[in-house]
Design a protein that fits this description.
This protein has 341 residues and is α/β, with parallel strands linked by helices. Helices cover 58% and strands 9% of the residues. It folds into 3 domains: 133 residues, P-loop containing nucleotide triphosphate hydrolases (Rossmann fold, 3-Layer(aba) Sandwich), CATH 3.40.50.300; 63 residues, Helicase, Ruva Protein, domain 3 (Orthogonal Bundle), CATH 1.10.8; 130 residues, Up-down Bundle (Zinc Finger, Delta Prime, domain 3). Strands 2-3-4-1-5 form a 5-stranded parallel beta sheet, sandwiched between helices. Strands 6-7 form a two-stranded parallel sheet.
C-alpha cells in the first residue's frame, strides 16, 4: 500500500499490526526523516539502543541475512525491535526479501532511500508488496496543497474568509506534514468559532515572508536581472539559508497569484494592490500592479512549482544548494523580464 506522510497518524494501527516493514523514500530529506521517526515511534522507543538496530547497505553487502538475523534476535531488555536501513537501494533487495520471508516474530523493518525514481527496482518491489507500507516524500504542487488545506478545514465545518488559504500557504510554505500541524494549531485556536479570518491566520501561523525581502521579491517578479543577481549573491555571501530565501520568494508569488486571479475576475489594478499590499509596502504599489497585469495565474503557478521543487532539492544533501537556488531564481527572473520588460 502507498500512503502520504500526513496519513501516518491515521494508519498508526495498521502500521503496528498489519505491516512488516515501511519504505520511506523521495527527494525531501526533511520529510523522510520526520516520517521515519513517526513510524519508528509507533513500533518502539527510539531512544532504546537495544530495540533500535541501525544497519547500512555496506553491511548488507558483506552479510545479506543481517536484516532478518537482527529481526529474529531477541532484544536484550525485551520489547519490540525496529531494524532501520537508512540508505537503501536496489542492491538491498535480497536482504529485504530475506527479512520478509524469514521473520519469525513482530520485529519491524524501516527502510529509507533518497532520490530514487519510480522505475527503480527497490521502489517497484516495495510498492508491490502487501507487507510493506510505502511512503513517497516529494513536494506537492501548490494547487494540491491549497485543495488539501481547504478540504481539511471545511470538513471540520469551518467557513473561510476570502484569502485565508493563500495566506496559510504563504506562511507555511511547501511540505504537507508541516502544513497539517499548522492547520491543527489553527483549529485548536478557533475553539467554538467557525468563521476563520485572515486575522486568525496571521495570529496563529508564523509568517515565512518578511518585509525586508519585499524589494528583492518584487525585482524577481519584475524581471530586473542585474539587480536580482547582485541581491542573490549578497544574501548567499551573508550566510542566508537558501531554503529561507525560497520561502520568502514563494510568499510574494502567492500574493501575486491572488492578484492575477482578482484581475481575471475583473477587479481593477489599484483595488488589487490596495487589497493585497500592506500600508508599509507603498513602494511596491506600481510594480505590483504591473506584475498583476502582465503575469497570468498559470504562469505564476509554474513559478511556484519551480520554487517548491527548488526547496525540495535544497533539503537534499546531494545537490549543490547555491547553484540550485541561483538557477531557479534566474529562470523565473528571465520569464518575468520577457513579461514586464
Amino acid at each position: 500500500m502507498q500512503a502520504k506522510p500526513y496519513q501516518i497518524k491515521a494508519l498508526s494501527q495498521d502500521i503496528k499490526s498489519k505491516y512488516k516493514a515501511a519504505f520511506v523514500y523521495g527527494q525531501d530529506l526533511g520529510v523522510i526523516e520526520d516520517s521515519s521517526k513517526k513510524i519508528g515511534s509507533l513500533i518502539t522507543n527510539l531512544q532504546d539502543d537495544f530495540c533500535v538496530i541501525k544497519i547500512t547497505k555496506d553491511q548488507l553487502k558483506q552479510t545479506p541475512s543481517l536484516l532478518v538475523d537482527e529481526g529474529n534476535a531477541l532484544s536484550f531488555m525485551g520489547g519490540r525491535k525496529l531494524v532501520w536501513l537508512k540508505d537503501g537501494d536496489e542492491d538491498c533487495l535480497e536482504a529485504i526479501n530475506l527479512f520478509l520471508l524469514g521473520l519469525k516474530n513482530d520485529s519491524f523493518l524501516l527502510i529509507n532511500a533518497l532520490n530514487l525514481t519510480k522505475s527503480n527496482a527497490l521502489v517497484k518491489f516495495c510498492s508491490a508488496s502487501d507487507d510493506i507500507l510505502t511512503i513517497p516524500c516529494y513536494q506537492e504542487k501548490v494547487q494540491e496543497i491549497a485543495s488539501f488545506s481547504e478540504q481539511f478545514l471545511k470538513r471540520l465545518g469551518f467557513i473561510l474568509d476570502y484569502g485565508v488559504i493563500p495566506s496559510i500557504i504563504a506562511r507555511v510554505g511547501g511540505g504537507r506534514a508541516n502544513l497539517q500541524q499548522e492547520l491543527e494549531k489553527l483549529v485548536t485556536y478557533m475553539g467554538t468559532r467557525t468563521q476563520i479570518t485572515l486575522q486568525d491566520v496571521e495570529k496563529i501561523i508564523s509568517d515565512t515572508s518578511e518585509s525586508t525581502y519585499d524589494d528583492f521579491n518584487c525585482a524577481i517578479a519584475s524581471g530586473k536581472e542585474l539587480q536580482v543577481d547582485k541581491w542573490t549573491r549578497t544574501l548567499l555571501s551573508a550566510g542566508e539559508n537558501p531554503a529561507t530565501i525560497v520561502r520568502y520568494i514563494s510568499g510574494y508569488f502567492l500574493r501575486l497569484y491572488e492578484g492575477t486571479i482578482l484581475k481575471k475576475q475583473g477587479m481593477g489594478l489599484k483595488d488589487i494592490s490596495q487589497k493585497l499590499l500592506r500600508p508599509a509596502q507603498f513602494n511596491l504599489k506600481s510594480p505590483f500592479e504591473l506584475q498583476c497585469a502582465k503575469w497570468t495565474p498559470d504562469m505564476v503557478l509554474k513559478a511556484l512549482d519551480t520554487l517548491l521543487e527548488t526547496e525540495c532539492q535544497i533539503k537534499s544533501s546531494n545537490y549543490p544548494v547555491d547553484v540550485v537556488l541561483i538557477r531557479a531564481i534566474t529562470t523565473i527572473t528571465r520569464i518575468a523580464h520577457k513579461l514586464c520588460g
